[in-house]
Write a sequence for this structure.
């Protein structure tokens, strides 16, 4: 029961907090691409890979009291902060999860901007293409983000670093 | 004349209960409709198992695909000569609209979950592989199949084109909401689409709606909200979906354990063992699937035959509300009690959650989380819908999740009233 929810809670229990829904979306996608067996389905959206399933599961976990969500008013938008609750930790005790340790991955990703994680997740979305084509594709679908060649190289280095953690 | 510009000598029309008529003038569109891959969509129901709840819901993905095509055709008519619109993209939009659901399989939601497949991958394979559809698209121009695939995959460079087919207010949703309302017979789901189409405006990378059309959009959002609870998330439909998933799990489990089926499930072999090839995938439609379910009713395995009988003869599981937080211990006790009662809890004790469904509400979301619906103000500024609409803001903040526990109540009732196990199960379930 709720194994996929439990996997996500394991993710939240591996960090103090996650700030921002966009960041959360991209982090789970990047972890999936690092062979962490999350099952949320992603599609490409305006701002890169996005999972409606993940959004709903997070909402369910908030409504069940497993995760706390705080809304903060920013200049022109809201931002959300997520933390696992005591109830969530209790629930997690019922599961014997077969997930790799996530602390290091999360720390690396938490240290980068959501704009950068959008770039990395977009590169990973096209990873079956040859590298030059991935670069072209990033420029084509992300023209408004004005990513530079250095950004893309930084993205590759970051992917390599994450995949090298285990 | 180039194939892409060829017109039929007379316009063809399909009578349609939602849009009255679907108009086809382009030779390419007419040829695509005639392909075996597109005709196959007649044998895939749009609403999967909902027909077991709403007996009218027998409409197919074929009907819906024509509907989406027709809506996009009308939008493009309105966009002609407007700034930001490039009429060179017209045929691409029409093809993508028509073909956007091409990869759906039988009861696709459950199939995809159980066999870990993605219909979008198969849409891409049909568009780009050795298929009738691909041959037609290739005649338009070299690389055209890839363009159509990119639009459907939402990775096409021109995001305005993508947003016609896939966004928070797109032709896909506008068709299925109205069509599903019509065929289920519910009174929600209606909104003034003509008005929305009139106030849609093409911007550089998205479709927006003039602020004066806000009330029509509110109606659309309300319809989406109502349809979710009343139709898509109906607890009886979820019961059928639960049983369907369990049938597929059981058949796979039996196959893996070397069980000898009375009738070899030849069409399922590739689904059981890994990713089916395109040919294998296309060969399994709902008619074939239901044939197997009917024959599996006679199988020796009591779980498989019982589940198939339940699905075919609509003896569905009953449900109770369930809170995984406060009722975790009860669930664990029930799991043991069901085993004791001879009911395999992996098949007969099922928690189903709202996130198990492929439908969504409108959420304004966070900045750059997902593109929201934008209203175009007279000053040419864009504002997110819920910032201007109290109605949308009100329903965006509602609790929209739930969990239900599904059980075969008939089997429990058949147990002797003296059974302590039965007594305890009933106590936990019904107090």
């Amino acid at each position: 029961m709720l194994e996929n929810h439990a996997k996500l809670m394991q993710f939240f229990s591996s960090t103090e907090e996650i700030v921002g829904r966009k960041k959360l979306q991209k982090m789970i996608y990047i972890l999936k691409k690092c062979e962490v067996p999350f099952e949320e389905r992603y599609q490409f959206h305006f701002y890169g890979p996005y999972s409606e399933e993940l959004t709903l599961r997070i909402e369910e976990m908030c409504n069940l009291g497993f995760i706390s969500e705080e809304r903060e008013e920013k200049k022109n938008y809201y931002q959300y902060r997520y933390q696992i609750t005591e109830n969530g930790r209790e629930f997690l005790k019922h599961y014997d999860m077969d997930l790799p340790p996530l602390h290091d991955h999360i720390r690396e990703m938490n240290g980068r901007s959501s704009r950068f994680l959008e770039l990395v997740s977009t590169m990973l979305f096209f990873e079956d293409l040859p590298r030059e084509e991935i670069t072209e594709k990033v420029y084509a679908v992300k023209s408004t983000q004005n990513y530079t060649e250095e950004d893309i190289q930084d993205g590759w280095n970051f992917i390599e670093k994450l995949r090298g953690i285990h | 004349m180039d194939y892409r510009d060829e017109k039929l000598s007379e316009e063809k029309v399909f009578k349609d209960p939602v849009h009255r008529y679907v108009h086809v003038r382009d030779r390419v569109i007419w040829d695509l409709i005639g392909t075996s891959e597109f005709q196959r969509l007649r044998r895939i129901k749009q609403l999967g198992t909902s027909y077991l709840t709403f007996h009218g819901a027998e409409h197919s993905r074929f009907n819906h695909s024509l509907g989406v095509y027709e809506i996009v055709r009308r939008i493009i008519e309105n966009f002609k000569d407007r700034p930001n619109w490039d009429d060179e993209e017209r045929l691409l939009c029409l093809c993508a609209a028509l073909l956007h659901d091409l990869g759906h399989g039988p009861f696709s939601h459950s199939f995809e979950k159980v066999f870990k497949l993605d219909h979008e991958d198969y849409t891409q394979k049909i568009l780009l592989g050795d298929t009738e559809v691909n041959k037609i698209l290739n005649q338009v121009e070299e690389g055209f199949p890839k363009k159509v695939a990119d639009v459907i995959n939402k990775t096409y460079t021109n995001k305005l084109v993508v947003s016609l087919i896939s966004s928070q207010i797109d032709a896909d949703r506008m068709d299925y909401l109205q069509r599903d309302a019509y065929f289920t017979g519910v009174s929600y789901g209606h909104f003034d689409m003509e008005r929305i189409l009139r106030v849609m405006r093409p911007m550089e990378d998205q479709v927006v709606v003039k602020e004066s059309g806000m009330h029509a959009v509110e109606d659309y959002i309300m319809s989406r909200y109502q349809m979710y609870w009343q139709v898509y998330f109906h607890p009886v439909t979820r019961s059928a979906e639960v049983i369907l998933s369990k049938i597929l799990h059981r058949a796979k489990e039996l196959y893996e354990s070397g069980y000898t089926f009375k009738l070899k499930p030849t069409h399922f072999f590739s689904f059981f063992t890994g990713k089916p090839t395109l040919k294998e995938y296309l060969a399994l439609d709902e008619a074939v699937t239901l044939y197997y379910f009917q024959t599996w009713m006679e199988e020796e395995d009591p779980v498989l035959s019982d589940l198939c009988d339940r699905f075919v003869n609509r003896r569905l599981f009953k449900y109770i509300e369930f809170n995984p937080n406060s009722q975790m211990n009860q669930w664990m006790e029930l799991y043991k009690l069901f085993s004791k009662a001879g009911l395999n809890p992996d098949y007969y004790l099922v928690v189903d959650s709202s996130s198990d469904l492929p439908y969504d509400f409108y959420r304004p979301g966070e900045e750059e989380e997902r593109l929201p619906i934008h209203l175009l103000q007279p000053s040419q500024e864009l504002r997110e819908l819920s910032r201007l609409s109290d109605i949308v803001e009100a329903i965006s903040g509602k609790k929209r999740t739930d969990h239900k526990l599904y059980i075969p109540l008939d089997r429990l009732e058949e147990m002797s009233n003296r059974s302590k196990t039965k007594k305890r199960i009933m106590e936990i379930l019904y107090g």
Remarks:
- Chain B has a mean pLDDT of 94.
- Strands of chain B lie at 7-16, 20-26, 200-202, 207-210, 318-321, 350-353, 374-376, 382-384, 403-407.
- The CA atoms of residues 160 and 206 of chain B lie 4 Å apart.
